[in-house]
């Protein structure tokens, strides 16, 4: 947690030493263009869900070097005994006020590798300083929003609740994960701070410790039924699960006699398919057909799909660890690459990392993505350079967010982002969003951009010979 501190030092050291190097070399005011993109769709899936723009934009708006930041940097020693940072450079940072243009794909948009999510344009020094934080924010939230969307798709319309705070990677990770999970389609969170700060609906039941704190399940369930005001859901697997269900049925009948209802039971261990079927039979036989079964216990999209295939009558899914940690892929391989540069009063020069590994070669120019549709569904995406207009009617995905660091697009409500995500996932043909063996969505380079990229690659190879 930053505890309200300035965010300027949330960066890697080499961003600051490079910025100083640009300043010393007189290249700090060269105008640059950087793009953030990822090389492969996460979770061996067929898409990703853009997320994190809101927090990233907030970071840019708050970015200032505080006096104690500069004091800290002034105290760092270089390898030759002198200070690491020149006092003149620290004075530049003291008056630092970003003058950047930012274009971005709106949150909740379905995207595909290697499409740019962000385009940053401005002085080279400034663009460089924001690399680490932008990657930190957007990579993680895009990863978790994508994971959440996969789980929501697997649930087939049943609500998915995010229960991951206790297993998340720290306070900040927990809050960011709750935000991204809701953006990705989850119906609520157990994270109360996320509810307060972000307006996410909060949900919860009770823990095993509640049952263990009483003489037995009967007393625990009756007391919970009497004292809870948020809808009575009973956790039934503290001791013997089916016996717990029987006792929950008895508590539900007592509630019904008092004009209330047992909202649900929760299963948190064991054979969830068999236990949920047995529990459903017991509840229905007792006239408690409106009592819903919630399941948790290390669930993810694959486990939920298996349980649904087995006919498990589970109405609500509580997902924690495997969601908020991106369990099967704990990081998105997003990168931030320089793609064009020009000196003051000079011409633009394309920049490209060619690399021995062709998969790591970057993309030159000032990029935009145009989405073409047919019958209301995405058909193909084309990446092109905005300096070479693309023909054909379609939707350009990157939209202006900042101009000279002044916001030109208002911050979106998280519920609106969630609705966009759910709508776009409904539009995406099944073969691109299925969990196993999805087809690769067509993403093309515009012909002039492809030719320019090949020329740059060929020029690099010629220079090496």
Account of the protein in words:
42% of the residues are buried. The protein is elongated and about 80 Å long. It has a 7-stranded antiparallel beta sheet with strand order 13-12-1-5-3-17-18. The chain has a 6-stranded parallel beta sheet with strand order 7-6-11-10-9-8. Strands 16-14-15-19 form a 4-stranded mixed beta sheet. It starts with 12 loop residues before the first helix and ends with a helix. It has 2 domains: 13-144 and 329-464, nicotinate phosphoribosyltransferase, CATH 3.20.140; 151-324, TIM Barrel, CATH 3.20.20. 40% of the residues lie in helices and 18% in strands. With 465 residues, the protein is an alpha/beta fold.
CATH topology of the largest domain: nicotinate phosphoribosyltransferase
**Alpha-carbon distance between the two ends:** 50 Å
| Mean pLDDT metric | 95
When the domains are counted, the total is 2
What about the largest sheet?
7 strands, antiparallel
What would a concise description of this structure say?
The chain is an alpha/beta fold and 465 residues long. The chain has 17 helices and 19 strands.
Descriptive key words:
single chain, 465 residues, alpha/beta, nicotinate phosphoribosyltransferase, TIM Barrel, 2 domains, 7-stranded antiparallel sheet, 6-stranded parallel sheet, 17 helices, 18% strand
Question: What topology does this entry show?
Answer:
Blueprint: H1 13-25, E1 31-38, E2 48-49, H2 53-62, H3 67-74, H4 87-94, E3 101-104, E4 110-111, E5 118-123, H5 124-129, H6 131-155, E6 160-162, H7 170-183, E7 188-189, H8 192-198, H9 208-212, H10 217-227, E8 233-235, H11 241-257, E9 264-267, H12 272-285, E10 292-295, H13 301-309, E11 316-319, H14 321-324, E12 334-342, E13 349-350, E14 367-374, E15 377-385, E16 395-396, E17 399-403, E18 406-407, H15 414-427, H16 430-433, E19 443-445, H17 447-464
Parallel strand pairs: 6-7, 6-11, 8-9, 9-10, 10-11, 15-19
Antiparallel strand pairs: 1-5, 1-12, 2-4, 3-5, 3-17, 12-13, 14-15, 14-16, 17-18
């Amino acid at each position: 947690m930053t505890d309200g501190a300035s965010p300027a030092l949330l960066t890697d050291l080499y961003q600051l030493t490079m910025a100083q190097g640009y300043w010393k070399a007189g290249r700090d005011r060269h105008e640059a263009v950087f793009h953030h993109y990822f090389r492969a769709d996460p979770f061996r899936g067929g898409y990703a869900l853009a997320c994190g723009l809101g927090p990233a934009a907030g970071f840019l708006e708050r970015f200032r070097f505080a006096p104690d930041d500069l004091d800290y940097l002034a105290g760092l020693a270089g390898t030759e005994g002198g200070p690491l940072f020149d006092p003149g450079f620290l004075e530049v940072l003291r008056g630092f006020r970003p003058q950047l243009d930012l274009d971005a794909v709106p949150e909740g948009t379905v995207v595909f590798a290697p499409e740019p999510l962000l385009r940053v344009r401005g002085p080279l020094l400034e663009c460089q300083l924001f690399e680490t934080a932008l990657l930190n924010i957007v990579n993680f939230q895009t990863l978790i929003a994508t994971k959440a969307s996969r789980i929501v798709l697997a649930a087939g319309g049943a609500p998915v609740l995010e229960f991951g705070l206790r297993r998340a990677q720290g306070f900040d990770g927990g809050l960011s994960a709750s935000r991204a999970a809701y953006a990705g389609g989850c119906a609520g969170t157990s994270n109360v701070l996320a509810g307060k700060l972000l307006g996410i609906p909060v949900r919860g039941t009770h823990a095993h410790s509640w049952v263990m704190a009483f003489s037995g399940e009967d007393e625990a369930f009756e007391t919970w039924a009497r004292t809870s005001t948020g809808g009575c859901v009973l956790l039934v697997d503290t001791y013997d699960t089916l016996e717990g269900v029987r006792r929950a049925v008895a508590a539900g009948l007592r509630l019904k006699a008092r004009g209330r209802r047992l909202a649900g039971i929760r299963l948190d261990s064991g054979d969830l398919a068999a236990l949920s079927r047995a529990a459903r039979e017991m509840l229905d036989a007792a006239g408690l057909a409106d009592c819903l079964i919630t399941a948790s216990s290390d669930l993810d999209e694959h486990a939920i799909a298996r349980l649904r295939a087995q006919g498990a009558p589970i109405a609500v899914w509580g997902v924690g660890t495997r969601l908020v940690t991106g369990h099967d892929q704990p990081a998105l391989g997003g990168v931030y690459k320089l793609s064009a540069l020009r000196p003051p009063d000079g011409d633009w020069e394309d920049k490209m990392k060619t690399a021995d590994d062709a998969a790591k070669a970057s993309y030159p120019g000032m990029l935009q993505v145009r989405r073409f549709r047919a019958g209301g569904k995405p058909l193909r995406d084309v990446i092109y350079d905005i300096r070479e207009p693309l023909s054909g009617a379609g939707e350009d995905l990157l939209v202006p967010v900042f101009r000279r660091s002044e916001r030109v697009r208002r911050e979106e409500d998280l519920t609106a982002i969630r609705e966009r995500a759910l709508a776009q996932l409904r539009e995406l043909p099944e073969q691109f969003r299925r969990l196993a063996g999805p087809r690769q969505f067509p993403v093309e380079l515009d012909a002039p951009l492809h030719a320019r990229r090949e020329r740059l690659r060929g020029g690099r190879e010629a220079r090496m010979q």
